[in-house]
Design goal:
single chain; two-stranded antiparallel sheet; 10 helices; hydrolase activity; AB_hydrolase_sf
Length: 273
């Protein structure tokens, strides 16, 4: 446990070699990266941490922003004694954090891997940020008062995991005790509420803060279907790679949780930067 920006964070560091930071998507925990860490740790220093309120980390005093999460990555590296550049892997919503890190801390970034990352929408969210966050916090508080996290939290987590992955992945031993807490449920609600605002933040950063001249890989999960939705997602991810001047790679067969379905593809993307 490290105190970063005044918040006790659960941080893991494994392996030796160039530094890689693994950032999970909305509501995810450190154990979602286990298969990728096993592949990278022999020749990389792999850092992963639970964002405030998630996993085993303490809650944050305020709602998340892309800029604050980018700063948090830098401050975790500082706390571990890694002042030099690091490769950052951002999955799903954490792709916002990884890209913001590269733009706001260009000298700290050695490369980016955006793993089935969320897409930044330049459209402004309809509700003020404070209103949406207050509503999400209120819903989470009411659910916690009713005891719902203890009863439904782990089951909800398993349903989301099964929907996001193609293969059967057994529950991690820490999954149940972690997701039955009101702390994690509240953090998930606040992250979900913050999603459109973080997308707008990153969209606004792009014309103002150039990416550093580092390699970028965009990984797109593909399950093998031919539905318009799946094909459209691939094209949007390809367009993101082109916009960022990066390489486009399809991870197949894989669901959105491609670190579980295709950990070798994620590890290879890191090594090939």
């Amino acid at each position: 446990m490290l105190r970063v920006d005044g918040v006790p964070l659960h941080v893991l560091q494994e392996g030796t070699g160039p530094v890689v930071v693994l950032c999970g998507g909305l509501g995810m925990a450190w154990f979602d990266w286990e298969a990728v860490v096993a592949l990278l740790a022999p020749d990389r220093t792999v850092v992963r941490f639970d964002r405030p309120g998630l996993g085993l980390s303490a809650p944050a005093p305020g709602p998340p922003t892309a800029a604050a999460e980018a700063d948090r990555i830098a401050h975790v590296l500082d706390a571990l004694g890694h002042p030099g550049p690091a490769t950052v892997v951002g999955h799903s919503m954490a792709a916002f954090h990884a890209e913001a890190f590269a733009r706001l801390h260009p000298h700290r970034c050695a490369g980016l891997v955006l793993a089935d990352g969320s897409l930044a929408d330049p459209a402004r969210p309809l509700l003020p940020r404070a209103v949406r966050h207050a509503w999400a916090g209120g819903v989470a508080g009411a659910a916690s008062a009713a005891g719902l996290p203890r009863v439904l939290g782990p089951a909800g987590r398993r349903l989301i995991s099964r929907a996001g992955a193609l293969g059967p992945h057994p529950a991690h031993p820490w999954e149940r005790p972690t997701y039955r807490t009101s702390r994690v449920v509240r953090a998930c609600a606040l992250e979900n509420a913050a999603h459109p605002y973080q997308a707008a933040e990153v969209a606004a950063l792009r014309p103002e803060r150039a990416l550093p001249p580092v390699p970028v890989t965009v990984l797109a999960a593909y399950g093998g279907g031919e539905t318009p939705r799946e094909l459209r997602w691939l094209e949007r991810q390809r367009a993101l790679a082109a916009e960022l001047g990066g390489r486009f790679v399809v991870a197949a067969p894989a669901g959105h949780l491609l670190m579980a379905d295709a950990p070798d593809t994620v590890a290879r993307a890191v090594r090939e930067l």
